[in-house]
Design brief:
The chain is of the alpha+beta class. The protein contains 16 helices and 10 strands.
């Protein structure tokens, strides 16, 4: 410490407790530990929340397209192949697939549920979404056969067309692979008695599990030609699904496609379609940050009490320093640096501990499941089989900065109080 400025030297020296200052030293270590615990809790909680948000985002974009192209003046896109080629040539577009989208009712022998049915081409769909990866039973071969038969004008009426449903929907309908379901469309045929709904029997040829309860209970798939015939669309489709090279760039790609295609086409990206969900997650993350930052704030009060007691203990030293010519600024700097050393030490220890704990959460989960002989996160409740953790540099920087700023603010009053001490009054009674 010989070559350090005297403010730094005194700050470090005051942190080393003498025998009569053991209590002050104990409070100093409690302050360091408080800051460390607060920083560690913030890092772990925000890492888990970021991981959950990331998993949720990937499940959403795995089931839905990044961007959807629709037509404003109608609910159908006529002569879509030229538009598809224009979209495919756009920058950052990886793949494009047509789809038909409508609401129907699915009924089994025991139950009925309203769902959204989507007509797809499996060969193109696998380039845009993760439907094929999410198939748990059966396959999409029947849907591909129906597309081949439609293109060759063949009719095979001996068996019902194929239908793909989610695992949760299959449970609700008490349906298994190979069972037949009735699809009822509210848009049917006009008769003298009014609108008669259209219905047809379909065979369950595949069951998928996307990991999202909302999708697994309310989404079903059939082949694109069958959807066009069932909903009387002719050769039209509802719109185009677009996959881009970076999901975070989807809003910019959607705007570029809107300008490129012009009226009457319009686009929607996945962030726009799920704005409320991710806005709620962001609010929750900010709220948790503020709540857990209170732990650091409590530790900052410990720093205040530590420095106040230190100022009371070092009144004689302060008076001597001021009598030797030390300025108020120099006296303030001594105690500000002392508080910052405490806060920085706690922040560094908490950051290292938080990173290590966040990185070990999955191993801790497996250990607890082995000891307890039960699932800590049941998949049928949480829809993920491992604890999602994502450490983000921005979160680490904000947490570290917040802890150091709170520590700095905690030093101001004790340091100002020390700087305003009158050396004459203190030395008079020594």
């Amino acid at each position: 410490m010989r070559h350090l400025p005297f403010e730094w030297a005194l700050s470090l020296r005051y942190l080393k407790a003498k025998r009569q200052q053991i209590f002050i030293s104990l409070i100093t270590w409690i302050s360091v530990g408080g800051v460390a615990v607060g920083v560690m809790a913030l890092i772990v909680v925000l890492a888990v929340m970021s991981g959950f948000e990331d998993v949720l985002k990937h499940k959403i974009v795995g089931t839905n397209a990044h961007v959807v192209v629709l037509q404003l003046d109608s609910h159908r896109l006529m002569d879509y192949e030229p538009v598809l080629e224009r979209v495919r040539r756009a920058p950052h577009v990886v793949a494009v697939a047509p789809f038909v989208y409508s609401q129907v009712m699915l009924s089994s022998r025991t139950n009925a549920m309203g769902v959204v049915i989507r007509g797809i081409e499996p060969t193109r769909e696998q380039l845009v979404t993760d439907l094929i990866k999410n198939i748990r039973e059966g396959g999409l071969e029947r849907l591909s056969e129906e597309i081949s038969q439609a293109s060759s004008a063949e009719e095979v009426p001996s068996r019902p067309p194929g239908l793909v449903i989610g695992r949760e929907l299959a449970k609700n309908l008490n349906t298994f692979l190979g069972d037949e379901l009735t699809v009822v469309s509210p848009i049917g045929t006009m008769t003298p008695a009014g609108m008669m709904p259209k219905y047809r029997r379909f065979e369950v040829v595949a069951i998928f599990d996307s990991g999202m309860f909302e999708y697994d209970t309310s989404l079903a798939f059939i082949s694109l030609p069958m959807a066009q015939r069932f909903f009387n669309l002719g050769d039209a489709v509802t719109g185009l699904q677009v996959k881009v090279d970076d999901v975070d760039r989807a809003p910019q790609v959607a705007q570029a496609l809107r300008r490129e295609l012009g009226f009457p086409y319009w686009t929607r990206d996945w962030t726009e379609m799920n704005r409320n969900l991710f806005a709620a997650l962001r609010v929750e993350k900010v709220t948790m940050f503020v709540i857990l930052a209170l732990i650091v704030l409590v530790a900052a009060f410990n720093i205040v009490s530590t420095l106040i007691m230190m100022v009371m203990e070092k009144r004689r030293d302060i008076a001597i320093l001021k009598a030797m010519g030390a300025t108020k600024h120099a006296i303030m700097k001594i105690f500000v640096l002392q508080g910052l050393i405490i806060g920085t030490a706690g922040t560094v220890a908490g950051a290292l501990g938080g990173i290590m704990l966040a990185s070990s959460l999955e191993r801790i989960r497996r250990f607890l499941e082995g000891v307890l002989q039960m699932s800590v996160f049941p998949r049928d409740v949480y829809y993920f089989d491992q604890l999602p953790v994502k450490l983000q540099g921005l979160d680490l920087a904000l947490i570290t900065l917040a802890a150091i700023i709170l520590s700095f603010m905690a030093t101001l009053y004790p340091a100002w109080n020390a700087a305003r001490l009158d050396p004459v009054e203190i030395l008079r009674y020594e």
